[in-house]
Amino acid sequence: MNPPLAEPPPPPVPVLALGDVLLVTLQGDLHDSAAERLQHDIAERVAREPVAGVVIDISGVEVVDSFLARVLAEIASTARLLAARTVLAGMRPAVAVTLVELGLTLPELTTVLDVGQALALLGRTPSGPRARQGGA
Amino acid sequence: MRVSHHTVRACLPIGSDSDLAWVRQHVRRVAAESGFGLVQQTKLVTAASELARNTLIHGGGGHVEVTALEDGSAHGLRLSFVDTGPGIRDLDQAMTDGYTTGGGLGLGLSGARRLVHDLTVDTRPGQGTTVTIVVWATDMPRPRAEP
């Protein structure tokens, strides 16, 4: 067994502002520490800036375990307390199947198929297809 | 045990956040090499992530042993998550949905069990815990885990 190498912390996930919508694109494998940092960063931005919505694009995420699911749900709950709406975009089918078997249906999260639908739902582009409300 | 042939493929340390990421990447790769479909890969990597995090958070770190299984034409993987932590005091409770001592959703053990074909726990108070999961690449009929 090799000793763990001393690695620098993963870079923070960028949070982009598109008008009053924050756009976060998650890619690949997200370290726990990066996920927790993202949660903190979004809460700060939502509280400080005139943010109406948060779009989290997870189309590039291959695995959502219960830790990341909890972080995503907490981001949505926190943003709601700070008067912003969170939309989760682009979950992969294999991730959805796995989350259901894991026992996580994330009823508190609004989900859509892609970022375009998320922006439409938040009223930021000409109307697109209706979003699917997460729920039991 | 129905396994006629097996080889230890790797032994990976679990001592940090980055180790969890490395375990996920490694398990994804060997699952793909063993012929697992995308959904099955995703389930296995998710289960491995849950269990590796348990090893890190509750067991104070440890390692995972990855073993390739072969039984005739069937290919599978066995992952053993080993720690030398305090052990699990009440296993029945730890296997219950929603029970947590680690600040998560309490779905680690019970959730992982639903994602794999077999999950066994060997735990001794004060000496540690080994959680072993087995997944086969073929779509063999199997009973659903109790809810």
TrEMBL record, chain B:
One matching Pfam family: HATPase_c
InterPro entries from the UniProt entry: HATPase_C_sf (IPR036890), HATPase_dom (IPR003594)
Domain Histidine kinase/HSP90-like ATPase as annotated: residue spans: 39-139
SUPFAM superfamilies (alphabetical): ATPase domain of HSP90 chaperone/DNA topoisomerase II/histidine kinase (SSF55874)
Superkingdom of this protein's organism: Bacteria
Cross-referenced Gene3D superfamilies: Histidine kinase-like ATPase, C-terminal domain (3.30.565.10)
Protein name: Anti-sigma regulatory factor
Upper classification of the organism: Bacteria, Bacillati, Actinomycetota, Actinomycetes, Kitasatosporales
Gene label: rsbT
